[in-house]
Structure formats: structure tokens, C-alpha cells
Amino acid sequence: MKVLVGAMVDAPLAAFDARRLDAVARAALVPCRACAEARKRTGRQPRGCAPFFERVRVVGDRVIAGRGMWPDVRRAFVDPARVERIDVTVLGEPLNVTFRGELRPVQARILTDLGERRLALVSAPPGTGKTALLLAWIAKCGRSALVIVPTIELLRQTAREAERFLGVRASILGDGSAEIGSLTIATPRSALAHVEALGGRFGLLVVDELHLAGADTYLRLFERIDARFRLGLSGTMARPDGRFPLVEAHFGSLASAIVAERADLESEGVLVAPSYQPVPTGFRAAYRNAGDWPGLVDQLYQDDARNAVIRDCVARECTGGVVGLLLCERIQPLERHAEALRARGLRVAVVHGGLSTIERATAIEAARAGDVEVLAGSSVADIGLDIPRLARVFLTSPTRAWPRFVQRIGRICRPLEGKGAAIVLDFVDDAGPLRAQGRARAEAFAREWPSPTLQGVA
Q1: How far is residue 207's CA from residue 72's CA, in Å, rounded to a whole number?
Q2: What residue numbers bound the domain in which 293 lies?
Q3: Which of 265, 303, 382, 441 has the fewest CB atoms inside 10 Å of its own CB, making it the most exposed?
Q4: Residue 77 falls within a domain, yes or no?
């Protein structure tokens, strides 16, 4: 019997032993945490929300699974020796480019370890230089490539780096452009909107910030792109919603990931080890249950005393050439912080989703050039912000998601001569779940970085 392996594994149901297939399919189920939490709150199953995601599913007389599930699928065959695997992946047209940069030792090791893998995961902390690495891999493979990045800022940054390291102008799919060429850089939404034109064209699929790829837009894209080689890179191979196994179904098991150890990167001078300083805000408010959460967050952002603590801290730290990144998830409080800091005489640039791409790019370039003391950003600044000059990060919004927490800290871990210490200022509140979230963040930092870099933690 013939099994087709392209974007997905497509096998005839008749090739399987029923009991083995049932066991494999059950083991491949991924619980939906959002559904479970809604059921816990309401006591009933929410409409339109399945309790599990299927990584191996039966569709009519076929069994469909992601390519990363092939070892599991193969175990369920009646007789694997009688199954013929037909490779229908796309090799893509040649891409004749040469990598013009010089890889750091850790990047060179990863490139060597990638070898001829068809499915590969690379876990490397923010600041490792994953953009240069993925471009070096594309040059090494020498095949047409589709690169997926999550934000417009990363889209532009990756295009610039492609021209710098490969000497070619990449086609852009997103940010108002709809170009498709041998080297195409795209956002996931734009790629999915043009998926008919993308399928059958690329030999390489590269996904940066792979931890975001558990979202439905990415997963639908993976089911359609039949590139022979897939490479996923991220600084945090985890998702708080538990959906990363859905990504593994398309890129292979996390157990086989190539990992760049943070301690090695710090010893080689690739990264700066940050220190962590919790800053008590004194904010307190009544909290009884989850229904109070929206109101609690509203109060937090509007609290004058808390805002004063944040602004005093930023003004105190961002002196003597120190450039800081103030992160706030809501735009209006972010703008108020920026206005108040300007009134104190600080030069502040702002980047958030309510601005045009040109305005955001101008703000980022101002910070990169050292023309401002503070870059105030919303969640669009969480990932892919390559500004080595940043030496402080001010975390003003509550969060319990440690992958996002680690990504934010990574913004200040890039080395720069004369930069000095990299310090995380985490504003910790004393109300309801905010107290526990603060402890969780301190614990997450302690797991990721050695305890001597903790300051003021009892």
C-alpha cells in the first residue's frame, strides 16, 4: 500500500491495525486548556470548543497526520514492510546565494548539527543571532525558501539581513506587499491568504519564533506548504496554552531539538547575563474571584501611586547613556507613561500596534541609534527587537506566561561595548493573583539564569 508524505502524511485506513491506530491516535491527542478552563468556570462544555486537538485523525478512508507524526503513524501499520512511502514533498528550484557573514562558534555548531535533517527544531535564547543562522542554512541548502516571521518589524529586519548576508533582495509578502519569489519572507496571515500560490514552490520552509506557531493560522499553513525541508527556531519552545505539541506534529519532536545552552552563549560573549530586580509598587485592591480580574487590571493601570513608582524608576535608571525598554500591554497607559517621562526631560520613542509601520520603524531606529533614553513599547516589542543598546527592561504589565517573560528579558541580553549591566526591573503588585504572578516570574528568572543575578529577592 502507498502512503503519501507531503505537507501531511496521507495513508489509506486499510494499512492500519485498528487497535494500534486507536492507541496512537489517543496518545496523540492534545488537551485544549482553554476549553478545560471554560468548563471549570461554567461547569459545562463550551459550544464550538473541542476538548482535544487531534494530531492523528481519520478522514473517511484515509488517515491524516503531520509529517512530524510519521514515527507514530508507522507503528500502527499492519505490516510496515508492505507499506510504500511515496515522497511528494517539493525540492524547489535552486537558489544560488552565498552567505557573506561570519558565524559565531555557536551558530556554526548549530549549522553543522542541522546536517541533512528534513524536520528540525532549534532552541536558542533571544540574542543568539537566529536570523543570521537561518539565512546561513538557506544558503547551505541552496533551494527556494519561504521564511515566516510573526511581525512587520521582523519582516523588515529579516529582509534587511537577507540583503546584507546573502546579497539578494527578498520578496515580501505582507506589510502591503504581495511579492512571491525564490526567497520570500512573509507574515503568517499573508502567507495563508496566498497559500494557493505558495504550495508546490518552495523547498525550504523556515519559521522564526516557532513558539507562536500553535495558533490556527500557522497550523493551517503547515498543512498546505509541502517544502521538503522545515526549520523552526525560537528562544522558548513552549506555550502557556499547551499547544506546542501541535507544532511538533509538523516539525518533529522537541526531544530531537538542537539546543544552544544559555551558559555557553554567555561564556562566549554572545549574550549578557541580566540581573533581576523586583520593584514593589504598593498597589492593592479587592479581589474575590476571576470575575474581578478585568476590573483589577483597569485599576492597576489607573493607579497614580503605582504609575509614579514606575516613572521614578525609569527616570532614575535611564541616565548616563543608559537606554531602557518600557513594556506595557495597553496602548493608552503606555502613551501616558511616555508623555509623563517626556515632561521630566527624557527623550522617549513609542512603538505599538496603533502606529503605522513607518512610525514604528522610526521609533526603533531612534532607539538603535541612541537618540532616545527610553523606548516605550506594547506587546509588538516583545519579540525580535534587535537593539543591543538596550540595557534596562521595565516590566509594567501583569503576566504569568514565562515564555513571554523570557522573551521580554531577551531584549536586553545582546552585548555592546560599553553597555554595562543589563537589568530587569519587574514591577510587582500586592493584590489577588498579581502577588502570585510576581513570585512566579521571580521563580522563572531563577530557572533561566543563575541565582547571583537576583537582586532584592528574599
Answers
A1: 24
A2: 272-453
A3: 303
A4: yes
